[in-house]
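Researcher: Structure for this, please.
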Amino acid sequence: MEHTESTRQLKVAKELQKDMAEIIRSKGMAVFEGAMVTVSGVRISPDLSVAKVYVSIFPSEKAEKVMGILKENTKALRGELGNKVAKQLRIVPELTFFLDSSLDYVAHIEELLKK
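Model: Predicted structure, token format:
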């Protein structure tokens, strides 16, 4: 039997993606060493207690540094998220950040096409 995410999970994930994107955008690029950080997706556990936040980082050379900054600030980011979702969610999910490298893949393909 294939595991599918519930409608509620998908709705919450979409909302969290929007909120996290806003929070990260509001910080400004300077916080992230001048990198552009995009929240490309969020997956949330069935009990809504853990959210995996996928981010794309451009330029990719800064990815490691930016992931470090995100990890160091997870608590603060979760706090801000809590302010946004307090009305919709009973618990603010734990956040874990993952690098979404699909943009790198796109850039690589574009590079190849230029040749």
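Researcher: Any notable elements?
Model: The CA atoms of residues 23 and 80 lie 7 Å apart. Strands lie at 36-44, 50-58, 94-99.
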